[in-house]
Write a structure and sequence with these properties.
Layout lengths: L13 H4 L11 E8 L3 E6 L2 E6 L14 E4 L6 E4 L5 E5 L7 E6 L3 E7 L6 H13 L3 E7 L7 H9 L6 E4 L20 E6 L5 H9 L23 E4 L5 E4 L12 H7 L1 H4 L19 H8 L4 H18 L2 H23 L1
Parallel strand pairs: 8-9, 8-11, 9-10, 11-13
Antiparallel strand pairs: 1-2, 1-4, 2-3, 4-5, 6-7, 12-13
Helix pairs in contact: 2-5
Length: about 350
């Protein structure tokens, strides 16, 4: 016999309850979004799974897996979406100032990478920036720990990204090893699983949820895998929590996440206020506190370069279309002016 779920089991909290109007209490049904399709959304309620149609004023592009929505008692139509406690999103590869939804109302982001050629510090920093911007707890999972003779090196490199950062090395195929993830997968808790294709996300999902999906191998030369997960779904974990698996993302843009970037690179961002000049570029200006930290060995030049790259990318991606056109115009004028001087 299947035990009915309560809203608390689904992750309902006082934050969502406080958003209900007096006349809505008892007159509407809260529902947790478990899947987003082209013209409808799949949800979970205390009564079971319900597919909802959207009114003309809404589109599925505004809904993320993990959202809480209110529907009519008949369970046929979505009335409105509730405000989110957290929103995980990335910068769009095509549109300035636009961000793409990944998941909503999650507590923890499992950033998954492998103990092989997939391990990439710069990519991990990007995921961390998105997590911190969303006010979500990041946990770095190092999979395939059984396939390396030096797992401690990977742990140390990941741990160097933050003294308080949780780093877990495991063999995703070993059920006993996944018990290490219990602190983040308890009753009512929601985790999102993110990382490149081929790092073992589907294997982890299978073990954590008991739902077995096919897995695919990786190319040996670069440890890259094929996409197994092609959509996002909210699934119950065996420990009473909820898991959102995400497709492997080759592009991981940042947009309007400067606070998250500053937190990832806190040893650099906290020094900026100590620079002599407010607009210090940390490129040899006198009185640069960051340059002094590099000279003292407290900051590496490579870390500074990655910090500056993310900051530049974030600034450009956050622009509006009009701002981007203006910047491109100025750049084009500068190039033409330089070419004229060269011809003289």
């Amino acid at each position: 016999m299947t035990i009915p779920l309560t809203n608390a089991d689904l992750g309902w909290a006082a934050f969502y309850n406080s958003q209900l109007d007096i006349d809505e209490i008892g007159a509407v049904t809260p529902a947790r979004v478990s899947g987003v399709h082209r013209t409808r959304i799949a949800t979970l309620t205390e009564s079971g799974p319900v597919d909802l149609a959207l009114d003309a004023g809404h589109s599925t592009g505004e809904i993320a897996v993990g959202d809480w929505v209110l529907c009519d008692p008949a369970g046929a139509r979505m009335i409105r979406r509730l405000d989110r406690q957290s929103t995980l999103q990335r910068g769009s590869d095509y549109v300035y100032g636009e961000r793409q939804l990944i998941a909503a109302n999650i507590d923890t982001l499992f950033i998954t990478t492998s103990c092989n050629a997939d391990f990439n510090v710069a990519r991990l920093e990007r995921y961390l920036a998105l997590a911190y911007d969303a006010d979500v707890t990041p946990v770095i999972l190092l999979t395939k720990s059984d396939q390396t003779d030096d797992v401690q090196r990977y742990i140390d490199d990941a741990q160097a990204l933050g003294p308080d950062l949780a780093v877990v090395a495991l063999d995703a195929r070993d059920v006993t090893e996944t018990t290490k993830l219990a602190p983040w997968c308890g009753k009512g808790q929601t985790v999102a699983l993110a990382g490149s294709s081929g790092v073992g996300k589907t294997t982890l999902q299978n073990v954590l949820t008991g739902v077995h999906e096919a897995t695919q191998g990786i190319r040996e030369m670069d440890a890259k895998g094929r996409h197994t997960t092609t959509a996002r779904y909210l699934r119950a974990t065996l420990s009473g929590g909820w898991l959102i698996d995400t497709p492997g993302m080759r592009g991981l843009g940042v947009a309007d996440v400067v606070a998250g970037i500053n937190e990832v690179f806190s040893e650099i961002s906290t020094l900026e206020d100590q620079c002599r000049f407010r607009d210090c570029k940390h490129e040899g200006e006198p009185g640069c506190a960051v340059a002094a930290a590099i000279e003292a060995g407290d900051v590496t030049p490579e870390r500074l370069k990655r910090f500056q790259k993310l900051r530049r990318e974030d600034a450009i991606a956050t622009e509006t279309v009009a701002q981007a056109r203006e910047r491109n115009k100025k750049f084009t004028k500068g190039v033409k002016k330089a070419m004229k001087k060269k011809k003289r």
